[in-house]
Amino acid sequence: MSADLPPWRPLLRAARHREGRSPQARWLQLATVAADGSPRVRTLVFRGWAGGAALDLLTDGRSTKSAELRVQPQVELCWLLPKARCQFRLRGERQQLSPEAALAASQQHWQRLNPGARALWGWPQPGAPLEVGAPFPAELADGTPLPDAFELVRIEVKQVELLELTGHPHQRRRWRADQGWGEERLNP
Ligand SMILES: Cc1cc2nc3c(=O)[nH]c(=O)nc-3n(C[C@H](O)[C@H](O)[C@H](O)COP(=O)(O)O)c2cc1C
Known about the structure:
Elements: H1 8-18, E1 27-33, E2 39-45, E3 54-60, H2 64-71, E4 74-81, E5 86-94, H3 99-112, H4 115-118, E6 150-164, E7 171-176, E8 183-186
Antiparallel strand pairs: 1-2, 1-4, 3-6, 4-5, 5-6, 6-7, 7-8
Bound molecules: flavin mononucleotide.
C-alpha cells in the first residue's frame, strides 16, 4: 500500500481484514438527502477504491438515490465492522466524472461483475409498482452491453471519523482532507 494514502486507509483496511471472508466487510450504508430535505439511508456494496480518498459504488440510474444525488451530491457513508468493533463514518461528495471517464470506469466495473450480480440491471425500475409477469432475469451473460441504467457513483471522501469500542474509554478520531488528513482525537 502506498505511503501517501490518508492515514485512515490502513486502519479501515485492517478492520475490514478482521471480517475475514464475510460479505459484510463490503457492506456500507449510504445516506443521502431527499428533495424535501429529509434523510434517506440504504445499504450498498463497496466496489473498490478510486485513488487515495475516493471510492466506487454501483447503482441503478433509475433509483431514487440516483435522483437524490443529482440534486444533492453530499453524502455520508457508515461502515460498521463488527469483528473489529468499530465504525467508520465517511463524509464526502459525489464526484462529477467526464462522460468519457464515467463510461470507461463503468465498463471496467460491468465486466468485473459476475452474471448473477449483473442481472439486477436487467430488472424493471427499482421502487416502481410490481407488475405481475415482468421479467427478472437471474443472470446477464458475459458480453452483455453496459445497460443504460448502470450507474457508477464515485464518492470523494472529505472527512472520516472512526469510533473504536475495543478499549476503555472508547476511542474516537477524525481526519479532514482540508487539514491534510491530520489526526484529531475526540471524546467518544
Ligand atoms: C446487503 C445489501 C447490499 C446492497 N447493495 C446494493 C448496491 O451495491 N447498489 C444498490 O444500488 N443497491 C444495493 N442494495 C439495495 C439498496 O439497499 C436499496 O434497497 C436500493 O438500492 C434502492 O434504494 P433507493 O430507493 O434509496 O434508491 C443492497 C442491499 C443490501 C441489503
